[in-house]
Write a structure and sequence with these properties.
This protein has 868 residues and is mainly β. Among the domains are: 26-45 and 60-215, Galactose-binding domain-like (Jelly Rolls, Sandwich); 320-342 and 358-435, Tricorn protease N-terminal domain (Neuraminidase); 594-855, Alpha/Beta hydrolase fold, catalytic domain (Rossmann fold, 3-Layer(aba) Sandwich), CATH 3.40.50. It contains 14 helices and 54 strands. The chain has an eight-stranded mixed β-sheet with strand order 45-48-50-49-51-52-53-54, sandwiched between helices. Strands 2, 5, 7, 9, 10, 12 and 14 form a seven-stranded antiparallel β-sheet that branches. Strand 28 and strand 29 (398-406) form a beta hairpin.
């Protein structure tokens, strides 16, 4: 019986091989470029003649199965293995005229191992049969995943065995690696030949073979790597703290840690790698840090002295503890504890207001004080309202706290109470109680507050648009508030960028801002005495964060650029002496090639400039035609020049697309007049701008294929995608992720729908503005759609509920339109699950390939036709 099964399998394999080799619909390409490392002598382990605990003996082939070294991005001349005083480097393999790789075993060695590597670059999704022929044992890997193996040595008198790996390769560069074992006792030659077969109708140049690891941006570099998460500086400017996270395939497990380094020499002082700590902060006035970590199964707050490396426990049992903040004096800290309500077990939920739908809303945060000298704690706040710490006075005598109460009769539907609490008497003095709230911090002399928030704060003290124009509340402004007399100065009223972060520096009494400035995020210095602004000319396109040294003229910041991951920098307070502190992904991206980018703008029908930018494929040829992806958000914030991101334009360009990104009217960072255009518009202006911008772009870029243009956006951008498909047929296809199809259902059902609408639809409601809620909702115009549309949605989305895509899908299906819906199981507004995000990203690329390149194979592989 066993013999029959073996012969059947052998026959099946022979037929499969014969089909690949003789199929006239296939074409053959020999693999004639290899890198080789070895051969290297390998030895059987001690006591290999004994049985293991599983009753098995160690066999020679187990030397091959054992993964002694993983092959990662091999390059000619690089060292691969150091073994018994011998260094094995990757070398170009010498091939025979018939493309065989002949491997020479080590003289006198019984067992030898060698490693081979090459790269296949494919310019489209393609199915390939990869054939390997050898008498010896081997394992073949594609991008680190084993695809086929051979664990027996073929007798000299017989024909060499052939193994075929059927591969579905996505556009990009793929590492093919082989490890092979030679057993001198078995004799025979040690040689190997490989070739590949694919459809004859596909041009031969679709696949190229090379031994250089240079390639374009891919999903691996989008998702994985060592990511810089934060950068800060000690009080004296001598030390820096860098926080990292590292993502590991194939499951996306993430490790987070921080490092302390000497700023001048970059010498490592301390690393928390593998220690699982979080919430790390500098201790004011000391070369010390505090952090949360688990010890003995209990979460604790530690203080680490960086001079002695001694650790002290500051707080035990941090259950329900949230944030904490050191006092400027360093002798106490204020921290929060989250108090949870009694659990409702009735099965019925009485919703008292819209915020009560949020699962966390009934929990309340209260503040506590920890004295460092004796580690005693004191409760500072109590009650049914949460108290949020805003700042601690420089002398440590008072703190700023804020409370929020619902007020559903007026925009923005909450009131903020700003309170100054005396820490000696716990007496609370109300500074303001108003509809529009913000963030506040003390001035260096504690006599004023620096406040950031809507331009509508303080009775519109920050508004620069005419009285009949409703400003965009997401366009954040900055104010100086006098604690003695309540006078307010809107210091950014005539400053176009939108405020992201602010810090009032005690060293020079200037205020430092991180701002959203058109497509960039920049650092500015503001002199409040002279009312002067100074651009610090940061080295990254998008500053993600910054910190000031308390007692030194030093700024540390970090961020990414349009074609480069996050780096950390330091500079003087005037922006001079820019110094690179860390470039953690330099090696990870050293083999990645990017295409060119350029800024490109046009004027809309009113003459207003609409800015944008273009990403070109890395192998761009101006004499060729390329499909185009038009990307936009269209909502209240611009699409920044960030690297990576959920909608990675560099990845789209690497897939062979010209990518056009535009910043339609209504985005912040362009001034209040521009951002106010978002209010009560809901695409009325923006849709026309996207259409005009796309037409103008195509006219001015001859290499853009006007017949193969796709558009995409997410959230508000997904709404814009749906709306565009009801207004124009210039797009060959469209993708909407988490889009809004009916403004009224989003307004009422999404967790934050009514709050976002308090800005985007200010003073407009379904009962008083039918033109907006119906006229601008794509669902009510679904019959006008002619563009193939892909709807993507996380089915746990609480921001834009999945019903927004479901009802649009239902409408289009009943109308007989071309539409597909893909739900992402268990995901909210953003797709964060590692494996699901990769498949979601591939779904986007495959859909565009289907409609913009006439290549449906990838889509059909992911979503094969089902007879249902």
């Amino acid at each position: 019986m066993k013999k029959v099964i073996f012969l059947s399998l052998l026959l099946l394999f022979s037929i499969s091989f014969l089909k690949a080799e003789t199929d006239t619909s296939n074409q053959k390409i020999s693999i004639n470029q290899w890198l080789i490392a070895g051969s290297a002598s390998v030895k059987m382990p001690a006591f290999s003649q004994r049985n293991s605990v599983k009753g098995k003996k160690f066999k020679a082939v187990d030397l091959l199965k054992f993964q002694s070294k993983k092959i990662i991005a091999p390059l000619e001349g690089d060292t691969f293995l150091i073994n018994t005083n011998h260094i094995y480097q990757w070398k170009a393999a010498r091939l025979s005229k018939s493309d065989y790789v002949n491997i020479k075993p080590v003289k006198g060695a019984v067992y030898n191992k060698a490693w081979l590597a090459t790269y296949l670059t494919v310019n489209r999704f393609i199915k390939i049969d990869f054939k390997t022929e050898t008498r010896q044992c081997f394992e073949l890997y594609v991008d680190g995943v084993k695809k086929v193996s051979k664990y027996t040595v073929t007798d000299e008198k017989k024909k060499a065995d052939t193994k075929i790996a059927s591969l579905n390769l996505e556009k990009g560069t793929h590492l093919i690696s082989i490890k092979t074992l030679y057993n001198a006792d078995k004799k025979g030659v040690w040689k190997l030949i490989a070739s590949m077969y694919f459809n004859r109708n596909i041009p031969k140049e679709t696949v190229t073979v090379t031994t250089h690891p240079s390639h374009f941006m891919d999903i691996d570099h989008l998702m994985n790597g060592k990511h810089l998460q934060d950068a800060s500086v000690s009080f004296n400017g001598k030390l820096i703290m860098l926080r990292y996270s590292k993502v590991y395939p194939p499951n996306g497990k993430t490790e987070s840690w921080f490092e302390i380094r000497d700023r001048e020499h970059n010498k490592l002082i301390y690393s928390s790698e593998f220690a699982k700590v979080n919430n790390v902060q500098w201790v004011p006035g000391k070369e010390a840090v505090s952090f949360k970590a688990k010890a003995g199964g209990i979460d604790k707050l530690f203080l680490l002295n960086l001079k002695t490396m001694n650790k002290t426990v500051l707080l035990y049992n941090l259950k329900n503890t949230g944030y904490y903040q050191w006092s400027p004096t360093g002798n106490f800290m204020v921290y929060s504890i989250n108090e949870k309500p009694v659990k409702n077990k009735s099965g019925l939920i009485h919703v008292v207001n819209m915020m009560d739908r949020w699962p966390w809303w009934r929990s309340r945060g209260q503040l506590y004080k920890l004295n460092i000298s004796d580690l005693t704690t004191e409760r500072l706040t109590y009650g049914y309202l949460s108290s949020e710490l805003q700042d601690i006075r420089h002398d440590g005598k008072k703190i700023l706290i804020s409370q929020s109460i619902p007020n559903f009769l007026e925009r923005p539907y909450t009131r903020q109470i700003m309170i100054e609490l005396d820490l000696s008497s716990l007496k609370a003095d109300t500074i303001w109680n108003q509809d529009f709230g913000g963030r506040a911090q003390y001035s260096p002399d504690d006599k004023q507050l620096l406040v950031t928030g809507s331009s509508a704060m303080f009775n519109g003290a920050g508004v620069s648009v005419p009285m009949n124009v409703i400003p965009n509340d997401y366009d954040t402004q900055a104010y100086i508030y006098d604690l003695k007399n309540g006078d307010v100065s809107g210091i950014t009223k005539d400053f176009d960028p939108s405020i992201q972060d602010a810090e009032w520096n005690i060293t020079d009494n200037n205020i430092y801002f991180r701002v959203e400035e058109k497509s960039w995020s920049n650092l500015y210095q503001y002199n409040p005495k002279e009312n002067k602004w100074l651009n610090l000319h940061n080295k990254t396109d998008m500053v993600s964060g910054f910190k000031l040294a308390i007692n030194a003229p030093v700024i540390v910041y970090y961020g990414s650029s349009i074609q480069y991951p996050k780096t950390a920098w330091s500079c003087n307070l005037d922006g001079s002496n820019q110094k690179l502190l860390d470039d953690p992904e330099k090696d990870f991206f050293k083999n990645i090639t990017f295409g060119n980018t350029e800024n490109w703008s046009f004027k809309n029908v009113t003459g207003r400039t609409i800015e944008g930018r273009v990403y070109y494929p890395p192998d761009y040829d101006q004499n060729k035609k390329y499909p185009v992806i038009v990307y936009y958000y269209g909502g209240t914030s611009p699409t920044g020049r960030t690297f990576r991101g959920r909608y990675p334009k560099n990845l789209f360009a690497a897939q062979g697309y010209i990518v056009y990104v535009l910043q339609p009217s209504g985005a912040t960072g362009f001034g209040q007049e521009f951002s106010a255009l978002h209010v009560n518009n809901w695409g009325e202006t923006v849709a026309d701008e996207i259409i005009l911008g796309t037409k103008t772009f195509l006219k001015e870029h001859p290499s853009a294929n006007a017949k193969k243009v796709g558009c995409m956006g997410a959230s508000y951008g997904g709404f814009m995608t749906m709306l565009l498909t009801t207004r124009t047929n210039i797009f060959a296809t469209a993708i909407a992720h988490a889009g809004i199809s009916s403004i009224s259902s989003y307004w009422g059902e999404g967790y934050w729908g009514y709050l976002y609408s308090s800005v985007a639809s200010a003073n407009s409601f379904p009962w008083n503005n039918n033109k907006l809620y119906v006229g601008q909702s794509p669902l009510f115009h679904a019959d006008k759609v002619t563009t193939p549309l892909l709807l993507l949605h996380g089915n746990a989305d609480t921001n834009v509920p999945i019903g927004e895509s479901l009802q649009m899908y239902t409408a289009l299906k009943l109308l007989g339109k071309t539409v597909e819906l893909v739900e992402i199981e268990g995901q909210d507004h953003h797709i964060v699950d590692y494996k699901k995000r990769i498949l979601w990203q591939k779904t986007i690329l495959a859909w565009f390939d289907r409609w913009l390149k006439d290549q449906p194979e990838w889509w059909n592989k992911i979503y094969p036709k089902e007879d249902l």
